[in-house]
Give the backbone structure.
Amino acid sequence: MKKLSLHKHIVKFLYLLFCIFIFTTPFVTRNNLDMINFYGIMDNDVAVNSNNKSKIAFLTFDDGPSPNNTRKILKILKENDVKATFFIVGTKGEANPQILRELSNNGMCILPHSYSHSYKDIYSSSNSYFNDLNKCIDVIKRITGTAPLPYTRLPGGSDNLVSNPENLRTIRNKLNAKGIDYVDWNVSSGDASEETVTTSTIKNNVFNQCKNNNFSVILMHDTYYKNTTVEALPYTIKHLKEQGFEFRTFENLSAWERGTMINMGIINRR
């Protein structure tokens, strides 16, 4: 009888431990697992990117691809073993499909910016915006064979002065409702402030703004006439490497990186 009683106590104790484990251990659902894999927070990624002393730079190029400067930029990136993110214009992707494929084949991150880049048409209504965006996404899928990740950059930025504020607010909310993050920047090269901006001005703009930004999302352009952007790029990469920056793209963005961008108002700025 004593042995039977002891056995019952052991069974009850083990059952209690089991209940404690079940109700205190987070469940890993399929959705959670997908989120973990998508944002790249497995293995050593958290340890590397959760160090707030690290310096991280995202080179981003808008409005391409162009038949001349995008290839030059790609060459510089390859020579320096750096990856970048390209927010493309759909019509230019259709006009330069081979360049778009070259970006993809060389591990660059390709994301939608706009199909037409016509502010008047895009921002006339939220429906017009999404029709335009979907066409750009289709161009990327058709030419590269890969659907872009759920990020976009609104022409002029998410708080531009071109769109009706109410339309812009609706667009931003609908993007998030569809699971798409909209991306701005916190470092501007200023290469689009005039038709031609000097190489030294572009370099100095980036250097000065990155000085106080250990986490820098840098806005540049790879359009046809941005020759000085191309000229400034090798110096920019060299300088940032010397300052201890690591270059990243929006491919396999970690949860910490995404969270940092949200907190800084780079992703989903309100």
